[in-house]
Amino acid sequence: MSIFRMSKREKVLARFAPITDKPGTERAMRIAVLRARRSGKTAKEFTHQQAFDKAVAALVQETPVSAEIAEWFRNEKLIPQSKRTWRKVARNPAVLSVALAVAVIVGVLVFIVMERMKDFPGAGTARKMLTIASATRAGQLDPLEAEAGSLGDFFFMKYRLEHYDVAPEFSEFRASACRVFDDDEGHRVAQISVPEKQMQFFLFPAERNPKDARPLQFTGWRYLEHEGWTGVVQVKDGVCFMAALRGEEQDLAPYLSKDSGAGNGGSSGR
Amino acid sequence: MTGDAEKAQEAFQATLREAALRSAKGEPPADRLWFFRDARWRCVLVGEEGLQSEAGTLEEHDISPQAATQVEQLHPEQLAIWISAAPEPQRSALAVYYLDEFTPREILLLLDLKASELSEFISSGRRQFQAWLNATTPVDVYEEE
């Protein structure tokens, strides 16, 4: 079917198509005129119609106007100028599109700002660890049977990793496997698997200040979520400890003691 | 609309007087369509006072390719008389449409008509006028040229 095939309504509209182009002509009429001009069957008739209408309109324009009436017309104050109301402006499709685009941009910016406000030093690395947690399979870690709190000594003795200590809140859990690996930035990361809710612990170096290379600190616990996993992070002696599980913030909250000050988005004292 | 310049001028001036009066009272007409709406009704009232055209079906012809040339042979008064003889609201529809001042939507608002009604009035008026043109300035005159 041709795109220029005219509907019944378009044929109705084309019969009183504007004689000359007018700025306020509605879209439906413009489409009807376009189709009438392009439609093979009606194009010829429409051309004759338009020539006829133009000739008649030209004749109307030749109608003599008396000087008295012409004088009346000069009194423009009688005819109020139509003002563009804000509603009319707001309904303009171009204005609506721009407003929608601006709203989306503002929404994205607000989202980014909110995310940034939640962030803490080392949040980027912590997210990577959550990705690793979601992809880790049981066979990838070395099996062991030990209390998680005792693995700090193990890491120091075997890998010379100082302060890689499991936080006291999680130190009494039984660990079933662990490993030490280098992340994509060459930092040493310790990963511990715990049967309790299939949690995973991560220990990795805290982010450092580029100016003086000192570890960036933050107080209390900070939550973050990524790929369906939730982690809670604490920094101590330049090392971040993160406990992670597949779930939500509320699944981790009970493990944190009331006075340990878990926070989200910079808040603390949860 | 009236087919009579004097009557049209009277109606027009009455409209302007009404507008001036409203403006003096601090209630000017809401928009420019008010002027045409008011003038239209005054013209219709004037038209009802004189002789009325007989109701009947006018002959209709297809629009001729030579129609523009035929129209050029006319005087504006002839067209005015032809339009003023049309029944209401077709008369108003033809007058407002060929004034070429308004968008289609404005014409519908001004005349309080539906699109299908306006379409029919204009279309049939066009064909009737073509039939009249063919009778007064036959097409074969141009074909011979």
Keywords, separated by commas or semicolons:
heterodimer, A: 270 residues, alpha+beta, 8-stranded mixed β-sheet, rod-shaped, disordered C terminus, B: 145 residues, mainly alpha, 68% helix
Major sheet of chain A = 8 strands, mixed
How many helix segments of chain B?
8
Characterize the overall form of chain B: elongated
The tally of beta strands of chain B, per DSSP, is 0
The percent range for helix content of chain B is 55-70%
Contiguous helical run count of chain A: 9
The H/E string of chain A reads HHHHHHHEHEEEEEEHE
Query: How far apart are the termini of chain A?
Result: 66 Å
In terms of quaternary structure, what is this?
heterodimer
The averaged pLDDT of chain A comes out at: 84
Uncertain segments of chain B are: none
Largest sheet of chain B: none
Helix-and-strand structural type of chain B: mainly alpha
Rounded to the nearest angstrom, the distance between the terminal CA atoms of chain B is: 35 Å
Tell me what you see in this structure:
The complex is a heterodimer of chains A (270) and B (145). In chain A, 39% of the residues lie in helices and 20% in strands. Chain A has 270 residues and is of the alpha+beta class. An eight-stranded mixed sheet of chain A has the order 1-2-3-4-7-6-5-8. The radius of gyration of chain A is 37 Å and the shape is rod-shaped. Chain B is mainly alpha-helical. Chain B is built from eight helices and no strands. Chain B has helices at residues 5-24, 32-49, 67-72, 76-84, 90-99, 104-111, 115-136, 140-144. The longest helix of chain B is centred in the last third of the chain and has 22 residues, at 115-136. Chain A binds chain B through residues 9, 12-13, 15-20, 22, 24-26, 29, 45, 48-49, 51-64, 66, 68-69, 72, 75, 77-80, 82, and chain B through 5, 9, 12-13, 16, 19-20, 23, 28-32, 35, 62-65, 67-69, 71-72, 74, 76, 79-80, 97-100, 102-107, 115-116, 118-120, 122-123, 126, 129-130.
